[in-house]
Each structure stands twice: as C-alpha cells, then as structure tokens.
Specification:
- By secondary structure, the chain is an alpha/beta fold.
- The chain has one domain: Ribonuclease H-like superfamily/Ribonuclease H (Nucleotidyltransferase, domain 5, 2-Layer Sandwich), CATH 3.30.420.
- It contains four helices and five strands; from the N terminus they run E-E-E-H-E-H-H-E-H.
- It has a five-stranded mixed β-sheet with strand order 3-2-1-4-5, sandwiched between helices.
- Helix 1 packs parallel to helix 3.
- The longest helix has 18 residues.
Amino acid sequence: MNHLEIYIDGASKGNPGHSGVGIVIFSEGHLIKNISHYIGQATNNVAEYTALIFALEEALLLKAETLKINTDSQLLARQLNKIYKVRHPGIISLYERAVHLLTGFKKVIVNNIPREENCLADKLATAAVKLRKRL
C-alpha cells in the first residue's frame, strides 16, 4: 500500500454544532477502509481539518508513502497548497498538526473536488452526526 487515494469530509449541523468526519480510503482503486466518527461540537472548518488529521494518521498506520487527498473544502485545499494563509485562531493548531503529519509521506497531493465527487465521505460524516444526535 505505497499509494493511497483518500476522500475526506467534515459535517457540522449548526456551524458550530454536532459534527462528524467521514473518510474513504482506496488503494489501487480498491476500497480498503471507511471511517465515520462523531467529534462533538465544532464548526464545519474544524470538522474538515479533523477529517484530514484522522485520514493522515490512518495513512501513516497503513504505511503509505504517497497520498492523494480529495476534499470538497476549497478553504482547506487552498490553505494546504499555500494559496491562502491560515488566520483563524481555531484552525491554526489543526493546520500545524496536519502539516506535521504530512512530513511522514514522500509525496502528498491535495485536490479540491466538487461536492458531488465526494458523496461517500459526505455520507459517512453526516451519518456520524445523525447517529450521535439520536443517542
């Protein structure tokens, strides 16, 4: 599993509100893992960064060398690709943690994709929020 393609999404109902992350991991076109996790009260941007951090930690555990990260968060993609600066105090520490985790890989590409191409990760993130709200 040298190369992984990962789809990430964060969902927040209320912004801030109940939030969850969804992650879908592929290796050579084959689905190897889905992650759906409730993260508590957060903004949508915090949920997006938390999804990224969960995905990077999982990729390190899977011993990936290269990653292609797909996100429908234009902000996250542009910040990681150094097009936008990170200014929001609630995001800075998450951004720094993500950048630190990125050093564990030989190559990482972060793509901003349309929402309709990220439906699996979106469903997992939304499911985490819905499940928690029912409990």
